[in-house]
Amino acid sequence: MKEIAIGILASMFFAVTFILNRSMELSGGSWIWSSSLRFIFMIPFLFLIVLFRKNLKQVITEIMKQPFQWFCWSFVGFVLFYAPITYAAAYGPGWLVAGTWQMTIVAGTLLGPLFFKTIYSKNGQVKVRQKIPLKSLYISIFILFGVVLIQLQKADSLTINEIMIGVLPVVIAAFAYPLGNRKMMEVCDGRLDTFQRVFGMTLASLPFWLVLSVYGFIEVGTPSSEQISQSFIVAICSGIIATTLFFIATDRVQHHQGKLASVEATQSTQVLFVIIGEVFLFSSPLPSGIAWGGLLIIVIGMLLHSFYTKQMNTKPKLRVIYNTKAQKF
């Protein structure tokens, strides 16, 4: 339950991304700067946090031990996640991008078989491939249906081109984010805390953002002061606060695919926060009747996830005995 609450709080700060990215595009800013500036601004803040906590050396040591893993999965989790989202915001409204992003609640569940867990038996430690948690998948699909209902109220105003450009990049991002996050949890194997992992991934992805910045300077020139200030807000709210909260929640349930899927499903509430933000900032109309039905489905779906997670927490833990020692699995 606590992890789900943390996930919902994170999604509120994540919503800032979709609202301000669209705002920057409407004011003439380039998606190139919207994406790269966020992570460039994150570096000094995360550096100071890790330095203050006196565990900077450990992050550098971990990166040097497995540099390919760090650069590869940081690229997947951060670059392939955020660059497509900002690109999509240049061609589609914030509600469309935020709504499509909810594919991640199903994507995260489907990624389960790509990972292994260690169990203990009379024969010692055994690595077993994770299974897709079907109950969590069904609930996530139910939530996704609610998201689709919200999108229907404005879908008739979109062209095919807007749908293709505004949707496909976000689908890529929806799979890349949970994949990069889970792979890095596997690489770190509990040796780094959340702040260290976020800093390490941001640092490892920095070369890609710097290259993109050079490309942006050549293609569109320097960013405006308004885009710089808004990117700074996104970096703080979404890049540091939201990412850290979300990673804390996923770290706490990383060894249980069902609970992990429940935490990742909290991202569906971003649609609610985006709608509220666009109503207040852009004077967007309130949802229609069918959209309210979608909102109700999302709320019910999150309650089901909470109930399912609580139910799993009350299940007795199994033990097997070997070598006169009890081991959990």
From TrEMBL:
Sorted keywords for this record are: Membrane, Transmembrane, Transmembrane helix
From the record, give the transmembrane residue ranges.
5-24, 30-50, 70-89, 95-116, 136-152, 158-177, 198-218, 230-249, 261-283, 289-309
Q: Name one Pfam family in it.
A: EmrE
Q: Which domain of life is it from?
A: Bacteria
Under which name does UniProt file this protein?
Answer: Drug/metabolite transporter (DMT)-like permease
Q: Which organism is it from?
A: Rossellomorea pakistanensis
